[in-house]
C-alpha cells in the first residue's frame, strides 16, 4: 500500500526530497521541481483565502510542506491529518510557530465527536487514495463553521489500460472511475456550494521531465509514465475545487 511513499520516506529522511509529495505547478518561467511544488502549495493556499486567527486543517498532509507554509504566513490553529504515522512523525519535526494537532486517521474520521470547529480545510492531491470520498465530504461539511471553505484537489482518470496501470501503481486508488460529476455531486450532497473548479493537469506536465522518460508508443507498466501519457492526451485531469460550506456569509 502506497509503495511510492515508502521510498519517498527514506529519501526525505536522507534529505534528498522536499517536504511536498505532489506533482508541482509550472506556471510562468521554468522552475525546478521543488519550486513548482511550492507554487502548487501556494496556489491551493490562495484558494483557501486565509487570514490570521483561523482553524486550518490539511487532510492527507504528507510531510507537512503546505501546512508549514501556512504556519510561516499566518497565526492560527493548525491540524494535520494522515493515515500514515510515519509521515506524521516527519511532518511534526522541527519548530512550528502555531499550535498543531496531528491526527493519525482516515480522511473521513478526523472530526469524530466534533462539529463546527474548522474555518478552512485543504486536501492537496490526496483524495484519490480515500476509501470513502463521500464520507470525507460529509466530515468536512460537519467540521466547518458556516461560511467555512474546503479546497480539494485530486486526480481523475478515464477508463483505459493506462489508467489501470496508474491506479495500480499508486494504490490504494479505491474508486478509479470517479468522474468530475461524481465529485461535485458528493460535494453538493454534503451541503457545499461549488465556487470554482480548475483543471491543473496541463500545468503539471513540465515536472514529468524530472520523474520519467517520455511515453513510448506502447503502454508500459510504469504508473508515472502512464499518468504523463494520460495528462498529455487530456485523458486524465487534476481538478482543484473551491467549495463553500453552508450559509452565505464568509468568515
Ligand atoms: C500524493 S500525497 C500528497 C501529500 C500532501 N497533501 C502534499 O501535498 O505533500 C497523498 C497523501 O494522502 C495520504 N493518504 C492516503 N490515504 C489516506 C487516507 N485514507 N486518509 C488520509 N490520508 C491519506 C497519504 O499518506 C499521502 O500523505
- The CATH architecture classification is 3-Layer(aba) Sandwich
| Assembly status | single chain
Strands of the largest sheet, in order across it? 3-2-1-4-5-9-7
The biggest sheet amounts to: 7 strands, mixed
Total domain count: 1
Give the strand content. 15-25%
Unreliable residue stretches = none
> What is the level 1 CATH name?
Alpha Beta
**Which range best describes the helical content: under 10%, 10-25%, 25-40%, 40-55%, 55-70% or over 70%?**
25-40%
Q: Could you name the key traits of this structure?
A:
single chain; 251 residues; alpha/beta; Rossmann fold; 10 helices; 9 strands; 37% helix; binds S-adenosylmethionine
Describe this structure in words.
It contains 10 helices and 9 strands. The strands form 2 sheets. A 7-stranded mixed sheet has the order 3-2-1-4-5-9-7, with helices on both faces. A two-stranded antiparallel sheet has the order 6-8. Helix 2 crosses helix 3 (about 65-75), helix 5 runs parallel beside helix 7 and helix 6 (about 160-170) crosses helix 10 (about 225-230). Strand 1, helix 3 and strand 2 (about 75-80) form a beta-alpha-beta unit. It has a single domain (about 5-245), classed as 3-Layer(aba) Sandwich (Rossmann fold), CATH 3.40.50.150. The chain starts with a helix and ends in a 7-residue tail after the last strand. It is globular, with a radius of gyration of 17 Å. The chain is of the alpha/beta class and about 250 residues long. It has helices at about 5-15, 35-50, 65-75, 85-90, 135-145, 160-170, 180-190, 200-205, 210, 225-230, and strands at about 55-60, 75-80, 100-105, 120-125, 145-155, 155, 195-200, 235, 240-245. S-adenosylmethionine binds near residues 5, 22, 62, 83 and 87.
